[in-house]
Design a protein that fits this description.
With 672 residues, this protein is an alpha/beta fold. Helices cover 25% and strands 27% of the residues. Helix 1 packs antiparallel against helix 4, helix 2 runs antiparallel to helix 3 and helix 3 runs antiparallel to helix 4.
Length: 672
C-alpha cells in the first residue's frame, strides 16, 4: 500500500492553482483531468502501483507544466524501485515549482531515494527555487484589472485564474475592480420601460455591475442604455480557446467578493448527434451543474435560450430538469418564434428590475447572495393574469417575456424591502432506492441520479417499477418558523402524490407513477416537476426549488392491474425512430416481457429481438441456457452490455448510440 502522505499530497498539492498551457483551456480540459484524478485516487487507495503511475503520467501529459502530477509520477517510480526514473521525474517537478523541502525530506513515498548521492542536490535546488520561484504557467498569478464603470473590461490571462479542489470542482475567476468615474442621472437610462424606471432608478445602481454576452453578440443586450453597466469582453487568448461562448464558465470577482453579473447566450452546445441547448447540456454534466450553482450563489445571473429543447413543432420538451440556478427564455406565444428577441427582452427586463430596487434592498440582496432567487420570484409573481404563486401556472419551465406583466414586475421590484427578500430555500434527498443496472434497467449510465444540488434534484426514471419514490428535506438555514409547500407544476397531478411527514412540511415523500409521453398546451412532455416553496410566517415566499423526474422517450411500457411491469418495448415504433438524448440512454433493439412465479414474485423476462430467437433471463439478469422440466433455470450465463456508436446514426432519424448484449464466461449451473 502507498504511504498515507500520498493521498494528502494529491488533495493539497494539486488543489493550489493548477493551470494549463492557458487558463482558458481549463474549462475544456478539466473534465478529462477529473477522470484522471479519480483513476489515480482509486488506484492509490487500492494499492495498485502500476495503475496509479499510469494515471499520474496521463496527468503530466495533459498538463506538462504542472509540478504536482510530475511529483506523483516520481512517487510511483520510487515506490516501484525504479530510482533513476524517480529522480528524473522529481527533478522535473522541482523545476516546475514543487519546492517544499520538508515534504521532499519526509514523504515516505520517496524513502528509497534519500540515500542516493543526487538527492541532496535536488533538495538544495528546491531550497533555492523556493526563495526565487520559477516563472511558469503553473505558478503564475492573476491580478485584478481596474476599469472605469461603463467602460469595457477585458478577461484575459493577466486577470483570470483557475481555482479548483476535489470537493467544490473547478471554475475560472476573472479579477476586476470597477470604479465609478463619472456622475449619472436617471435621465441617462435608455433601457426598456424608461417612463417607469427613471423616476425610481438609483443612478448608481449599475456601478460595479457587469454584463457578459456569451453568444458572440448574436443577442447582445444594449448595455450602453444602462448607465455605468460594465460590459465584459474576452481577449484573444480566451477567444482562441473558445472560453468566451456558450455556458458560463467563470466567476467575476474583486478578489474579495463576487461582482453582480448578468449574462446571456442563445447558442446551443455540442455537435450532432450530441446537440443540445445550454440548459440540457448543463443538466447532463455534473461539473457544469456545480458551476451553475456556484455562479448563482455569487449573484451571477445567466439567461439561456431554451427554444432548441422546448419546441412544439420539433420534439417537444426535451429538458431534463427545471433548474432555477439560471433563467430560461423562450418565445412560446408567436406562431413564428423569435427566440433572440425573447432573450434580449427578458435579459433587459431583469437589468431594469435590478436598477429600480431600493438601494438598501439591493445591498442586502447582494450581501446574502440572493440576486438569482429574487429575480426568479419577482418574474413568477408578475406573470400576466396574476396566477396563484403556489400553483403550476406561476412556474413555467421557461419565461416568455410576452407573458410577463413588465409594469407589475418593476413595481414589485421597487417596493421590495430587505425584509421581503426571499428565504434561501435548499433541498436534499434523504431517502430513495435506486434501481439495479442491467436488472431493473438497461443503459450504460450507472444511476438514475442526474443532479443533487440545493436548488434542483433530477432523476431519469430508468427502473421498471411503476412508482418512483423519494423523500426530500427542505430547509432555510438560520430562519426558524418557516413552513414549506410542495405541489406539482409539470406532469399529470393525478399520478403524483406528495405526503408531508413533518408539521411544517420540511420533509416530504414524493411518489410519481410512470407517465410516459403526454401533451400539455400543445407541447410533448415526459417530465414531472414538483416544486417546493418556503413561506415565512408573514407570507414572504421563496423562489421555487424543484424535484424533476424525467421519463425516457425510447421505451414504451405496459403495467398490469397490480402495477407490475408486463413489457418494456425499446424497439423503434412503426412511425419511426424516436429521439432521446444519447447521453441519457442508448437505443436497444429488443423488447422485454416479464415473468412472475405463482406467488407473484419476479422470475425474469423473455427478450424478443427482431429476426432473432427469443431469449430467457432469470431474475438476476443472467441468460438462461437450459431449464428444468418445471421451467425454472438450470444453466445460466452472465451477460454484459456495451454501448457502441451506430454507423451513420444522426440521433434524429436513426440511433447514434446502441446498446449491445454479449455473454461473459462459460455457462454454469444454478445453485438451488
Amino acid at each position: 500500500m502507498f504511504g498515507s502522505r500520498w493521498f494528502f499530497i494529491l488533495l493539497c498539492g494539486i488543489a493550489t492553482g493548477v493551470k494549463a498551457q492557458s487558463v482558458f483551456d481549463m474549462p475544456r480540459l478539466f473534465p478529462q483531468h477529473r477522470r484522471i484524478l479519480a483513476r489515480f485516487m482509486g488506484a492509490a487507495q487500492r494499492g495498485n502501483l502500476t495503475e496509479a503511475e499510469a494515471a499520474a503520467r496521463a496527468g503530466a501529459r495533459l498538463f506538462p507544466r504542472d509540478a504536482n502530477w510530475h511529483y506523483n509520477v516520481a512517487c510511483a517510480c520510487a515506490r516501484g524501485g525504479r530510482s533513476k526514473k524517480a529522480m528524473e521525474w522529481l527533478g522535473k517537478a522541482i523545476d516546475l515549482g514543487f519546492t517544499d523541502r520538508r515534504q521532499l525530506k519526509n514523504d515516505p513515498d520517496l524513502a528509497s531515494l534519500r540515500d542516493l548521492p543526487d538527492f541532496r542536490g535536488l533538495l538544495e535546488k528546491a531550497e533555492r527555487l523556493a526563495a526565487n520561484p520559477p516563472t511558469n504557467p503553473t505558478l503564475s498569478k492573476a491580478f485584478a484589472q481596474t476599469v472605469a464603470a461603463g467602460a469595457e473590461a477585458v478577461a484575459d490571462a493577466s486577470d483570470t485564474q483557475w481555482d479548483w479542489n476535489p470537493v467544490t470542482g473547478g471554475y475560472m475567476t476573472t479579477l476586476l475592480r470597477v470604479l465609478p468615474t463619472r456622475d449619472v442621472t436617471p435621465e441617462d437610462y435608455a433601457g426598456p420601460h424608461a417612463e417607469i424606471v427613471r423616476p425610481w432608478l438609483d443612478p448608481k445602481a449599475y456601478a460595479g455591475m457587469l454584463y457578459v454576452n456569451r453568444d458572440e453578440d448574436a443577442c447582445a443586450v444594449r448595455h450602453e442604455r444602462f448607465p455605468l453597466l460594465t460590459p465584459v469582453m474576452y481577449g484573444d487568448e480566451a477567444q482562441k480557446a473558445g472560453a468566451h461562448r456558450g455556458t458560463a464558465n467563470g466567476l467575476f470577482s474583486t478578489g474579495l467578493a463576487p461582482l453582480p453579473t448578468v449574462g446571456n447566450s442563445t447558442l446551443t452546445a455540442g455537435r450532432p448527434p450530441f446537440w443540445r441547448s445550454i440548459p440540457r447540456a448543463v443538466a447532463t454534466d455534473g461539473a457544469a451543474m456545480a458551476t451553475a450553482l456556484r455562479l448563482a450563489m455569487a449573484n451571477q445571473l445567466y439567461v439561456y435560450d431554451a427554444t432548441p429543447d422546448l419546441n412544439r413543432r420539433f420534439k417537444g420538451d426535451l429538458l431534463t430538469s427545471n433548474n432555477p440556478a439560471f433563467l430560461l427564455s423562450a418565445d412560446l406565444t408567436n406562431e413564428k418564434p423569435d427566440p433572440k428577441t425573447a432573450q434580449r427582452d427578458l435579459t433587459e427586463l431583469v437589468l431594469a428590475g435590478f436598477g429600480v430596487l431600493p438601494p438598501e434592498t439591493r445591498r442586502e440582496m447582494l450581501r446574502r447572495g440572493l440576486f438569482v432567487p429574487t429575480m426568479q420570484r419577482l418574474l413568477r409573481q408578475s406573470l400576466k393574469g396574476a396566477p396563484d404563486y403556489l400553483t403550476a401556472a406561476a412556474h413555467p419551465t421557461a419565461f416568455d417575456p410576452q407573458a410577463i406583466d413588465a409594469e407589475a414586475f418593476l413595481k414589485a421590484a421597487h417596493a421590495l424591502t430587505p425584509e421581503g427578500l426571499p428565504p434561501a430555500l435548499q433541498l436534499a434527498v434523504r431517502q430513495e432506492t435506486m434501481p439495479r443496472q442491467y436488472i431493473d434497467y438497461f443503459d450504460a449510465v450507472s444511476s438514475e441520479g442526474i443532479a443533487d444540488t440545493p436548488l434542483c434534484i433530477t432523476r431519469v426514471v430508468r427502473g421498471v417499477e411503476r412508482t418512483r419514490r423519494l423523500t426530500v428535506e427542505a430547509a432555510v438555514p438560520n430562519e426558524p418558523g418557516v413552513s414549506f409547500r410542495w405541489f406539482t407544476v409539470n406532469g399529470d397531478p393525478e399520478k403524483v402524490r406528495i405526503r408531508t411527514l413533518t408539521p411544517n412540511g420540511s420533509l416530504a415523500t414524493i411518489e410519481a407513477d410512470w407517465q410516459g409521453l403526454r401533451e400539455e398546451n400543445g407541447m410533448a412532455q415526459r417530465r414531472v416537476d414538483v416544486a417546493c416553496v418556503a413561506l415565512r410566517p408573514d407570507g414572504t415566499a421563496s423562489a421555487p426549488c424543484f424535484v424533476s423526474l424525467r421519463a425516457l422517450a425510447n421505451e414504451r411500457r405496459t403495467y398490469d392491474d397490480h402495477g407490475r411491469i408486463v413489457c418494456v418495448d425499446y424497439t423503434a415504433p412503426k412511425e419511426g425512430f424516436v429521439y432521446e438524448d444519447p447521453l441519457l440512454s442508448a437505443f436497444k433493439n429488443w423488447s422485454d416481457h416479464y415473468l412472475y412465479d405463482a406467488e407473484g414474485r419476479p422470475a425474469g423476462w423473455i427478450r424478443k429481438s427482431p429476426g432473432a430467437p427469443d431469449q430467457r433471463f432469470d431474475a438476476r439478469g443472467r441468460r438462461v441456457v437450459a431449464q428444468h422440466p418445471d421451467g425454472s433455470p438450470k444453466t445460466v450465463v452472465n451477460v454484459s452490455y456495451q454501448p457502441r456508436f451506430a454507423q451513420g446514426g444522426d440521433g434524429l432519424s436513426a440511433p447514434a448510440v446502441e446498446l449491445l448484449q454479449s455473454d461473459v464466461g462459460a455457462p454454469f449451473e444454478v445453485t438451488p
